[in-house]
Structure formats: structure tokens, C-alpha cells
Amino acid sequence: MARQDLLIIDDFALSPMSKQELTDIFEIIEDRSTQSSTIMIAQRSPQEWYDYINDPLLADAFMDRVRSRAHLLPLEGKSLR
């Protein structure tokens, strides 16, 4: 039976994260990627996440999980909120 929960990650990539924190968030996203919904809110565009993660292998794996079933809703204007 599929999980029916929702995880909201607000302000992703707002401040630096350690390698272990990035690995942990990757594992959370990987575990949920085909079973549950996740909303990620960030001030940075997904294209900037590669530089933020600063590990090409981890960034590719992370972005693959995030983008595989994603619906991007870019906001424009003075405020992104």
C-alpha cells in the first residue's frame, strides 16, 4: 500500500549544509521518490542546486530523484513568497 503522507521542505539551500546533511536529505528524497509526495521550496533555482551541493555525483543523483516526477512552479516578481 502506498504511503499517503506529505513532506514539505521549506527554504531548501538557504544556508550551507554539511556533506552528511546533504547525504541525509538525499536519502530522504530517495526513499520518498516513488512512494510519497514532497514539496521543496527554495530561493535558489534548481539549476543552482548543483553548485550548492558541490558534489557532482551526489548532485546528479539528488536532482535525478527530485526531477523524475517533479512539477516546477517558478515564481517571479519582487518577492518569491
From TrEMBL:
The lineage of its organism: Bacteria, Pseudomonadati, Pseudomonadota, Alphaproteobacteria, Rhodobacterales. InterPro entries: IstB_ATP-bd (IPR002611), P-loop_NTPase (IPR027417). It comes from the Bacteria. It comes from Thioclava litoralis. It holds the Pfam family IstB_IS21. Signal peptide: none annotated. GO terms for molecular function: ATP binding. Keywords: ATP-binding, Nucleotide-binding. This is ATP-binding protein. Residues 2-81 form the IstB-like ATP-binding domain.
